[in-house]
Automatic annotation (TrEMBL):
Record-stated family: Belongs to the glycosyltransferase 2 family. WaaE/KdtX subfamily.
Domain (Glycosyltransferase 2-like) ranges: 5-119
Domain of life of the source: Bacteria
Signal peptide: none
Protein name, UniProt field: Glycosyltransferase family 2 protein
InterPro entries for this protein: Glyco_trans_2-like, Nucleotide-diphossugar_trans
Length: 260
């Protein structure tokens, strides 16, 4: 038996389809909600999920909060904007989890902009571990880019669908949603420093990596767009870090206790 775990914040447009996707393979579902102000929790409870309210602690820490409320040994953790494919459902149902030597299983992730599956820029296959034995492993207790720390995972030959962005506008709004500011705060707290060339160099490197080395040029306009978005985000991250270093007023007005 498997328990599904999802962390949420104002996901009323996604949570129903997410829970219904999990219900194909999970006997119970736990929603760890970061104090949503929309109908996320009401929808989840109406569908039979257990809802745990927890102010956001950061990615890996938040995902591990739900473990104390799960009934089963095996956990399937997905985001509210992710869905299991039919192939994933069949492969999960065919697993002998009681006797497997593996402590986790990984899925290929199909990242989308709108209805468009982006196969370049490192967006596919984008393997991620999402099914794991909670008695042997869990997500790393870090605040961003957390991954399950499995010692013997197995990749499955199936996909997880990720509706990353509704449109290109959302993709470019990512830096505006303070992703870059959050990263800059973390870097500053860790003692990392930038110089006058850092924003340009890191932005250019991000573009070259996505567009050339990860073959974004094969993705047409979408490939170019993803590469440019990555460059903008990287540029802003280092520009903000540099701003913390050289502008005492900005540094004084920034609350480093509220990175999240």
């Amino acid at each position: 038996m498997i328990t599904g775990v999802v962390i949420t914040l104002n996901e009323e447009k996604n949570i129903k389809a997410c829970i219904e996707s999990l219900q194909q393979v999970c006997s119970d579902i736990v929603i760890v909600d970061s104090q949503s102000t929309d109908k996320t929790t009401a929808i989840a409870e109406a569908l039979g999920a257990t809802v745990v309210i927890q102010p956001y602690l950061g990615d890996g820490i938040q995902k591990n909060v739900g473990l104390a409320h799960t009934e089963n040994q095996w956990i399937l953790s997905i985001d509210a904007d992710e869905r299991l494919t039919n192939e994933a459902v069949k492969q999960i149902q065919a697993l002998d989890l009681a006797n497997t030597p593996h402590d986790a299983f990984a899925f290929r992730r199909r990242n989308h902009i709108g209805s468009r599956w982006i196969k370049q820029c490192g967006w596919y296959p984008d393997y991620c571990i999402r099914l794991y034995d909670k008695t042997k492993t869990r997500f790393a207790e870090v605040k961003q880019h957390a991954a399950v720390q499995a010692s013997n995972p197995k990749p499955l030959d199936c996909d997880l669908i990720h509706y990353s962005f509704d449109n290109i506008g959302q993709l470019f709004a990512k830096p505006g949603r303070n992703f870059s500011g959050r990263a800059a705060k973390i870097m500053y707290q860790k003692g990392k420093r930038a110089n006058a060339f850092s924003p340009f160099v890191h932005g250019l490197n991000a573009f070259i990596r996505k567009y050339i080395f990860q073959r974004g040029f094969l993705g047409g306009v979408d490939g170019m767009t993803v590469a440019l978005s990555s460059a903008v985000n990287s540029y802003l991250k280092y520009a903000k870090l540099l701003e913390f270093q050289r502008d005492p007023k900005v540094l004084e007005n920034e609350d480093f206790n509220k990175v999240w």
